[in-house]
Design goal:
474 residues, alpha/beta, Alpha-Beta Plaits, Molybdenum Cofactor Biosythetic Enzyme, Chain A, Maf protein, 3 domains, 6-stranded mixed β-sheet, 5-stranded mixed β-sheet, elongated, disordered N terminus
C-alpha cells in the first residue's frame, strides 16, 4: 500500500490572581501604542478574505480504526504555524467512488485540497487514478520518474516489480513532486476550469504519499513553500496557546470572557481545549494587526489567571517544573505508591531532567515503605497507608535518603475497590517536603485508574511548581 500503518477537566476551582509577573513581549508597534491596521474607530474587525483549505485523508485502515491518523494534526499544525487555517478535514476508505465523491465536494468549496495516501503500487492505491478520472486528466508515464524509480531500486540492489512503475503515471498537466524518502512522487494539479465550483473558480489539488516519513518532508520542503509563493496570505493569522492547570474549562471561560469581550469585538477568537487537569486557552486573530490583538489578549489572560498558566504552545507541566528547578539550581526526588512510577516517568520524559531529578522509590507495599523510606511500623498501624501522616513520612523519608532539595510523595486509593466511607475510592494524599517544612494536600480523584494516576501526578507537579513560583527554596 502507498501509506504506512505506523501513522503516527481540571482540578478544583481556585480564585484568580490579580497580577502576573512574567512580561508579555509585544511587537514594537504595540508597545508604542500604535493601532495601525485595526478597525478601532468602528469596533469592527477588518477581516480579509482567506484561503479555504481542506484535507482529505484516504485509507480503509483509518475507517476500521486500525491506524491512528496523525496526518490531520500534523498538517493542520504546519499550516497554522505558517498563518494558514484548515477549514475542513475528511477521511474516506480506499474506494474510487468514495475518493471521487469527497474530492468533488471539496472542489465545490475549497481553494486548496490536500489529499493523503493512495499513491503507491498496490491494488488499493486508487487516489491517483480516481482523481485523474474525476478532473478529466489522462495519465501519462513520466520517463524522469521511471528513471528515478530504477535508480532507487538499483541503489538498494533490488529489482523493481512491474507494478512499481504505476507510480510513474502522472495526470496530464500535473507537476510531480520528488520523493527523497520513498518511491511514490507527490502530485500537484490546478483544476481550471473547475466545473465542480458554483462560481467556476480554480482550485489546486495536492496529492501526498501516506507514510509520514515521506509525507512530512515533502510537505515541509516542497508543498508549503509553494503555497506561500502561489497562494500568499491576504492578512496575517496569529495564534497563541496558553496552557493552564487547576482551573476547569467553564471556570476559565468565566474568568476571562468578560475582560476579553472588547478584543473579541475587534476580531479576536478564543478557543478552549480541556484535558484531565488542564485547559489550553487559544487566542487567535486573522485580521490586519493580528499580532497586536493577540498580544493584548495574552496580557489580559495573564493578568486574570496568570498563576494557573504554566506554559505556552506544546510545553508540558513537567517541562515547566524541570525548567523552574533548573533556573533555581534545585533538585527533587519522589516517593510513589498509587501512581506506580508515573510521576518519576513524567519528570524524566523531559530532556535535561537529570540535572534536577535525583531519583525515587515506588513503595507500593507497606514493607517497602518501611525499608526504603524509613516509615515506622507503628505509623502504618495507627494511620494506614493512605493518610496524611503517611504521605508526610514518605516525602520526608525520600528527601532524607536522596539529599534532594524537595521530595514529592503520593499515596492513595486508585480503585475500583478498596474505598471506605471515610476514604472513598479516589482519595489521595500528596506531600511536598523541603528543608523548612512539609505540606500535605488531600484530593479526591474519583476517576478510572489511568485518569486517577494522571490527575494525581498533575496535582503533585503543580504543587511543586507553585512552591517554586512563590520563591520557596529548599
Amino acid at each position: 500500500m502507498g501509506r504506512s500503518c505506523d501513522r503516527d477537566s481540571a482540578g478544583a476551582q481556585q480564585p484568580p490572581p490579580t497580577s502576573y509577573p512574567p512580561p508579555v513581549h509585544h511587537p514594537a508597534e504595540c508597545r508604542s501604542g500604535a493601532r495601525r491596521g485595526l478597525a478601532w474607530a468602528t469596533g469592527a474587525a477588518e477581516t480579509a478574505p482567506r484561503l479555504n483549505i481542506e484535507i482529505l485523508n484516504t485509507g480503509s485502515e483509518l475507517m476500521l480504526g486500525r491506524v491512528l491518523n496523525t496526518h490531520q494534526q500534523w498538517l493542520c499544525r504546519q499550516f497554522a504555524d505558517a498563518g494558514y487555517v484548515v477549514d475542513r478535514q475528511v477521511a474516506v476508505a480506499d474506494t474510487a467512488q468514495d475518493i471521487q465523491q469527497a474530492v468533488r465536494e471539496a472542489l465545490s468549496r475549497a481553494d486548496l485540497i490536500v489529499v493523503t495516501g493512495g499513491l503507491g503500487p498496490t491494488s488499493d492505491d486508487l487516489t491517483r487514478d480516481a482523481i485523474a478520472e474525476l478532473v478529466g486528466r489522462p495519465l501519462r508515464e513520466d520517463p524522469a520518474i521511471v528513471a528515478q524509480l530504477n535508480a532507487w531500486y538499483a541503489a538498494r540492489k533490488r529489482t523493481p516489480a512491474a507494478a512499481v512503475l504505476v507510480q510513474a503515471q502522472v495526470p496530464e498537466g500535473a507537476t510531480a513532486l520528488p520523493n527523497a524518502h520513498g518511491t511514490a512522487p507527490g502530485l500537484l494539479i490546478e483544476v481550471q476550469p473547475n466545473p465542480h465550483s458554483p462560481t467556476g473558480k480554480a482550485a489546486w489539488l495536492v496529492m501526498l504519499p501516506g507514510p509520514p516519513r515521506e509525507l512530512r518532508p515533502m510537505f515541509a520542503e516542497q508543498v508549503l513553500p509553494w503555497v506561500q509563493r502561489t497562494l500568499p496570505l491576504a492578512a496575517p493569522f496569529v495564534c497563541r496557546t496558553l496552557r493552564s492547570t487547576g482551573v476547569p474549562e467553564s471556570t476559565m471561560q468565566e474568568h476571562i470572557a468578560g475582560p476579553l469581550a472588547d478584543l473579541v469585538s475587534r476580531g479576536l477568537e478564543i478557543g478552549y481545549c480541556a484535558r484531565p487537569g488542564e485547559v489550553d486557552v487559544r487566542l487567535s486573530a486573522r485580521t490586519t494587526g493580528a499580532e497586536c490583538l493577540v498580544a493584548e489578549a495574552e496580557a489580559v489572560v495573564r493578568q486574570t489567571v496568570g498563576r494557573h498558566l504554566y506554559g505556552e504552545e506544546g510545553e508540558t507541566l513537567e517541562a515547566a517544573v524541570v525548567r523552574l528547578l533548573g533556573q533555581r539550581r534545585l533538585t527533587v526526588a519522589v516517593a510513589e505508591s498509587c501512581t506506580g512510577g508515573r510521576l518519576a516517568s513524567r519528570i524524566t520524559d523531559v530532556p535535561g531532567a537529570s540535572a534536577v531529578f535525583l531519583g525515587g522509590c515506588i513503595t507500593y507495599s507497606n514493607d517497602l515503605k518501611q525499608r526504603l523510606l524509613g516509615v515506622p511500623a507503628e505509623a502504618l498501624s495507627q494511620h494506614g497507608a493512605v493518610s496524611e501522616p503517611m504521605a508526610r513520612l514518605m516525602a520526608e523519608g525520600a528527601r532524607t535518603r536522596t539529599g534532594a532539595d524537595f521530595a514529592l510523595a503520593v499515596t492513595g486509593i486508585a480503585g475500583p475497590s478498596g474505598g471506605t466511607p471515610e476514604k472513598p475510592v479516589g482519595t489521595v494524599f500528596i506531600a511536598l517536603a523541603s528543608a523548612s517544612d512539609t505540606a500535605v494536600k488531600r484530593m479526591l480523584n474519583a476517576f478510572d485508574r489511568e485518569t486517577f494516576k494522571h490527575m494525581t501526578c498533575e496535582q503533585a507537579l503543580e504543587m511543586l511548581r507553585q512552591r517554586l513560583l512563590a520563591g520557596g527554596g529548599s
